[in-house]
Design a protein that fits this description.
The complex is a heterotrimer of chains A (about 290), B (about 325) and C (about 550). Chain A has about 290 residues and is mainly alpha-helical. Chain A is built from 12 helices and no strands. Chain A has one domain: MetI-like (MetI-like fold). In chain B, α9 packs across α11. The chains are: A mainly alpha (about 290), B mainly alpha (about 325), C alpha+beta (about 550). Chains in contact: A-B, A-C, B-C.
Chain lengths: ~290, ~325, ~550
């Protein structure tokens, strides 16, 4: 990765920043590998109804706990449900939860942070102290308390995880705004009489995008893990939903006797989270010049 | 000096205030009537009414919050609905176990993550680097509860190299209570039997809990080292003919250290989150499991207490240390 | 976040650790302000001088899920784990021998029942040898004190005394040091009340030991860390959420000398860990294994499995006022839609098929199983009742593992797919049991997955709650107010002739089976795994405690 990155910096500047981005990212072999995993999982999730050999909820008691075989490639669970089919539908849930949490948290956080940074004064002070409060909580304990209070369900777990995720975006966005505000092009826009809204929209948001994108990629992974963790202890998706954390939780009593119930959902989680982390690494290397090595 | 302390304390008080509002708000959202739960299923209507009046539950939320704060200030966290004990007693029982586990996990993180990260950077693009990076990738992406289940299955059930769940073999008496950290207490009282056993019991949960933070630290250390290795002054030092070990020690590592330490600090806080899942798997009697059981049984006085303590530990530690440090080193105050 | 910068970060980390240590030792001071004063010296003592060494050979480690353990006070305890421990530490006036439904004397050497106006008068003569572990004699005053205390505290199990026995604090009197008189109204069966008095709620606590430690909660918290009983064991310590340690009572009044000098009741909630702990020998006995764990242990030469039928019944409550369940034919259709054989298969031999309200092992159990899955019949009944295809019914289901070691969620998912076959769409909502019980008790459930465990070993412990709306128990929760069922349950409870009583219960069972608001699913077995050297283990679901630790020995 490092070798390719330094090679990238030697290439002459490309015409547009966009093609430059793709060229650089294209050189990050490991990030491309991560991206491949994500695309693969997304395709599997999208095509789940076509690919899955069974309905994820279809039970066949006579297949109860049957090991991986031709009929069930990844085996069957206690109720004889096909684990492969459940994994495929579970991919939909994991990706969708990741996306919605990150979208919710990043939009809220960015708006709050950008506003704080732009408005300054006591707005800034007040809003940042509020993010301090959220940072003080160990995220999973707060998420659990929220999910428990709202009642255990996948939707409430999403809300809980989003609540503990947004402050990081607020900090990031605020920091970016503070730096960018002093940049020439923003001051110039001010000088020619551009309004606040226009400056924020035209000049600040596009320039804030890079670090937010990096953070979002990492948070996709973190969210998938958090939601699985919440589901594992009973505060997330509810059975018979084929969510990966639920599947591991349902299979935990069989881990000594029937390993496939937990192994495959764990591997699926590992791969998808690793995919997002790799992409995040790659994006950071390409987008953030200070960290490029 | 005084101004610095006032500012830090002011910030801390604001955070604590916000944390208490948030936990209080959560307890209001819970769909369970606290009076009815506290009195059990036999309580008659008039008893429930009387309890509500006694506990001020018939008052408006603002008044209830004021009462709650005034009790908190006196160290009264309320009484757990489930255990029927003062929440503060429960926390006193369970907090040391979590602290011990967290410190052990931090030890794992630093002793594994730091040297591996340095090695990986120095042997860049070798098999060692590859293995370390793979480890970092897996540790950062594997669900922590699965790691715990698998480690127990292999090292306890199959190989029987390490003891099972819990802090101590059930047949052993815990060491005399000094700090509540079994390893420390058994060391202080010279209880070698308990020391060996408690330390052995810590290994698997500490590795499980430390897996994620080890991965993060490894990556950061490697990245930070690489960044420094590429700097001009390192090249200069090498060109000057300085021994490689001196170059690494004097220039690279020393300069790579600050961001690494920053991460160590952040990770210390994040370990508390991981403790929830680790304690569940390892039957570890800490506040993570207490929090889980309390949320599960909708025991919100306990949940309020445990989230409050969890949220308070970290900023208080930091503030105390910052204040203490600013006394020693005035430059800090400028920050 | 203001974090570590530069080398001073190291100093800072160390400072954090130091401060933590200091704070903790501050926390650790036993004389913390909110700790009850009486508790402090005891805790200090236990910490300073760990109770005498007991060899592993004389120690029994008893593992299982004791998450429900919240109290060790006989007047409050109502949970499975708690009654097991309390039953080995405290004694009642009368009890049952394992496996035998005849009352036997314990603290009372004799008793008799006479009529006195509108009341039954129960007179107990205490055994003059009986002493508490402290050496003080057990007197009538201790009995009155203990029972009245349970009534005054009025927590979970108090209804057994106040409702089932119709007792008040006026009911019990100490005639002299060795004679106790209990007066209960004639509407209560004295036989039923005597059964209730075998339960831990009626255990006798030493008044002289507890009185100085009553505090604000009538001694509830003191009894969590100390015991004041007359049983074969004494409470040594309770490490919250970890274990309870009991030591043998060296001078038990009736001369019981337990071979196991120390019992460690170990909380191990994860089934995989429980299985591992018996395989490694860390535990001597573990209980409530699932079917798969039991199967895995089947071939283990070091472990013996003991299965015992419990008295628990797993069932689904169907609210009789909620459409479409208000139509008895719809309830009957649901009973025909369920595939009971599959459920028994899923439980892997950990359950018996029982489709009535009285469990195997109780007088009055009929053994009738009229229902097997019959999709056509169920559809016919639904069509005749005018229930449209795809009608939705909300079901609430508890979290965690249900009776017989199957996850409640798995059971619910199974029945969901059975009902889908007859065109009913069952929506599952999993709830924490406390929340679920709140809904159920408020008569707000539609379909409710639950289990019932009788509070005392008599068929009335099942018949009245299941059949009588007036008892404000299960029939009430399911909004099933049926005069015929109420009348039958009353008659059967008061009937003194055993044969006639059996007939009445048969009639009641059959009536509730088809008209009632329940789908009765199964009666689970409890699976115990014992290390091979363990002897003398007996599980008796009708006894209190269900396992008598003092009978157990190791080779």
């Amino acid at each position: 990765m490092q070798a390719s990155a330094s090679a990238a910096s030697l290439t002459p500047p490309a015409k547009s920043p966009r093609s430059l981005f793709f060229r650089r990212f294209g050189k990050e072999k490991i990030a491309i590998f991560g991206l491949t995993i994500i695309i693969l999982f997304s395709l599997l999730a999208l095509l789940a109804p076509v690919l899955a050999p069974y309905d994820p909820l279809y039970q066949n008691i006579s297949d109860s706990l049957s090991p991986p075989s031709a009929a069930h490639w990844l085996g069957a669970d206690k109720l004889g449900r096909d684990i492969l089919s459940r994994l495929l539908y579970g991919a939909r849930i994991s990706l969708a939860t990741g996306l919605s949490v990150v979208a919710l948290a990043s939009v809220t956080g960015t708006l709050v942070g950008a506003f704080a940074g732009y408005a300054g004064k006591w707005w800034d002070e007040g809003l940042m102290r509020i993010t301090d409060i959220f940072f003080a909580f160990p995220s999973l304990i707060l998420a659990m308390a929220i999910a428990g209070a709202l009642g255990p369900s996948l939707r409430n777990a999403l809300i809980a995880v989003a609540v503990v995720t947004w402050p990081i975006y607020a900090r990031l966005a605020r920091g970016q705004v503070l730096v960018l505000r002093r940049r020439d092009f923003v001051e110039a826009a001010h000088a020619v009489g551009a309004g606040h809204g226009l400056i924020l929209r035209r000049h600040l948001f596009p320039n804030m995008l890079s670090p937010l994108l990096v953070q979002a990629s990492f948070d996709m992974g973190t969210t998938i893990l958090s939601v699985a963790g919440l589901s594992f202890i009973g505060f997330g998706a509810q059975p018979p939903t084929p969510e990966w954390g639920v599947m591991i939780s349902e299979g935990r009593n069989y881990i000594t006797t029937h390993w496939w119930l937990t192994f495959f959902p764990a591997i699926a989680t590992l791969l998808s989270v690793a995919g997002f982390n790799l992409v995040g690494d790659g994006l950071r290397d390409v987008l953030d010049p200070r960290l490029r090595r | 000096m005084t101004r610095f302390i006032i500012r830090r304390l002011g910030g801390l008080i604001f955070v604590l205030f916000g944390v208490s509002i948030l936990t209080f708000f959560l307890a209001q959202v819970v769909p369970v009537d606290p009076a009815a739960s506290a009195l059990g299923s036999n309580a008659r209507e008039e008893q429930i009414e009387a309890y509500r009046r006694k506990m001020g539950l018939d008052q408006p939320a603002v008044v209830q919050y004021a009462n709650y704060i005034s009790r908190l200030v006196r160290g009264d966290f309320g009484v757990s609905i489930r255990t029927r004990r003062p929440v503060i007693d429960d926390l006193r029982d369970f907090l040391p176990a979590t602290i011990e586990l967290t410190l052990a996990a931090m030890l794992v993180t630093v002793t594994l993550g730091l040297p591996l990260g340095i090695l990986a950077a120095l042997r860049r693009n070798t098999w060692l680097d590859g293995a370390a990076r793979l480890l970092a990738l897996a540790g950062g992406a594997m669900p922590i509860f699965y790691i715990g289940l698998v480690l127990l299955g292999i090292f306890y059930r199959q190989l029987q190299w390490l003891p099972g769940p819990g802090r101590l073999d059930s047949t052993l008496q815990p060491p005399a209570h000094i700090s509540g950290l079994y390893v420390l207490d058994s060391l202080l009282t010279g209880n070698w039997n308990a020391l060996r056993n408690a330390a052995a019991h810590l290994v698997l949960p500490a590795v499980t809990l430390g897996a994620y933070s080890t991965a993060v630290l490894l990556r950061m250390t490697r990245a930070s080292m690489l960044e420094m290795l590429g700097q001009d002054y390192v090249r200069t030092a090498r060109a000057k003919g300085l021994a490689e070990s001196a170059v690494i020690g004097l220039h690279v590592f020393k300069n790579a250290l600050p961001p690494i330490l920053t991460i160590v600090g952040i990770l210390f806080g994040s370990l508390l989150s991981g403790a929830v899942l680790t304690e569940t798997i390892f039957n570890w009697p800490g506040i993570g499991r207490y929090a889980t059981t309390s949320v599960t049984t909708l025991d919100y006085p306990a949940v309020m207490g445990v989230t409050l303590v969890a949220a308070v530990i970290y900023p208080i530690m930091n503030t105390l240390v910052d204040i203490g440090y600013s006394v020693i080193d005035p430059r800090v105050r400028a920050e | 976040m203001n974090l570590l910068h530069g080398p001073r970060g190291i100093v800072k980390s160390m400072a954090v650790i130091l401060i933590l240590g200091m704070l903790l030792s501050a926390c650790g001071q036993p004389a913390a302000p909110s700790a009850p004063a009486a508790e402090a010296p005891a805790a200090e003592e236990a910490a300073a001088a760990p109770s005498g060494e007991v060899s592993r050979a004389e120690t029994l480690v008893y593992g299982g899920d004791f998450t429900d353990l919240i109290t060790l006070d006989p007047a409050v305890v109502y949970e499975f784990g708690g009654t097991l421990i309390v039953g080995n530490v405290y004694e009642t006036l009368v009890s049952f021998n394992p496996g035998d439904p005849t009352l036997i004397p314990v603290l009372a050497e004799s008793w008799d029942v006479t009529e006195e106006g509108d009341n039954w008068l129960l007179t107990f003569n205490l055994d003059s040898d009986a002493t508490f572990a402290s050496g003080n004699p057990v007197t009538a005053e201790d009995v009155v004190f203990s029972w009245n205390r349970a009534i005054d505290i009025n927590l979970s199990p108090a209804f057994l005394l106040t409702d089932v026995c119709a007792m008040t604090t006026e009911s019990t009197t100490a005639v002299d040091a060795a004679t106790v008189e209990l007066r209960i109204p004639q509407t209560v069966s004295p036989q039923v009340c005597l059964s209730v008095l075998t339960f831990t709620t009626a255990a006798v606590i030493e008044k002289a030991a507890l009185e100085p430690n009553m505090g604000e909660d009538m001694g509830q918290s003191w009894l969590n860390d100390n015991s004041a009983g007359s049983g074969p064991y004494i409470l040594d310590r309770w490490d919250r959420s970890v274990s309870v340690t009991l030591n043998a009572n060296p001078n038990h009044w009736a001369g019981i000398q337990p071979p196991m000098k120390r019992i460690i009741v170990q909380n191990t909630p994860e089934l995989a860990n429980l299985q591992a702990s018996i395989e490694t020998g860390d535990a001597d006995i573990v209980f409530d294994l699932g079917a798969e764990q039991a199967a895995a242990l089947e071939g283990n030469p070091d472990v013996t499995l003991v299965k015992g039928l419990s008295l628990i019944l797993a069932y689904i409550g169907l609210n009789a006022l909620e459409p479409p369940l208000d139509n008895p034919d719809v309830r009957e259709a649901i009973r025909y839609a369920v595939n009971y054989d599959d459920i028994i298969t899923l439980l892997g031999g950990n359950a018996e098929l029982v489709q009535e309200i009285i469990p195997i092992g109780f007088l009055g159990h009929t053994g009738t199983t009229p229902f097997t899955q019959d999709i056509d019949k169920a559809k016919e009944l639904l069509a005749a009742a005018g229930v449209a295809e795809g009608t939705e019914i909300d079901a609430i289901v508890p979290n965690g593992t249900g009776p017989g070691g199957i996850e409640w969620a798995t059971l619910a998912a199974k029945i969901q797919s059975d009902l889908a076959q007859v065109g009913l769409q069952m929506n599952i909502q999993q709830l924490q049991s406390s929340e679920l019980l709140n809904i159920y008790r408020a008569q707000d459930g539609k379909m409710v997955f639950m289990n019932w465990s009788p509070d005392f070993p008599d068929p009335d412990g099942n018949a009245t709650p299941f059949a009588s709306y007036e008892a404000r128990s299960l029939a009430w929760r399911n909004d099933w107010d049926d005069p015929q069922a109420i009348e039958l349950s009353k008659q059967a409870a008061a009937e003194l002739d055993t044969e006639r009583r059996v007939e009445l219960y048969a009639e009641l069972v059959d009536y509730v089976q088809h008209s009632g608001p329940y789908v009765m699913l199964y009666q689970p077995t409890r699976v115990y795994a014992l290390r091979n050297n363990v002897q003398g283990f007996i599980y008796d679901p009708a006894d209190s405690p269900v396992v008598s630790f003092w009978l157990i020995d190791k080779q």
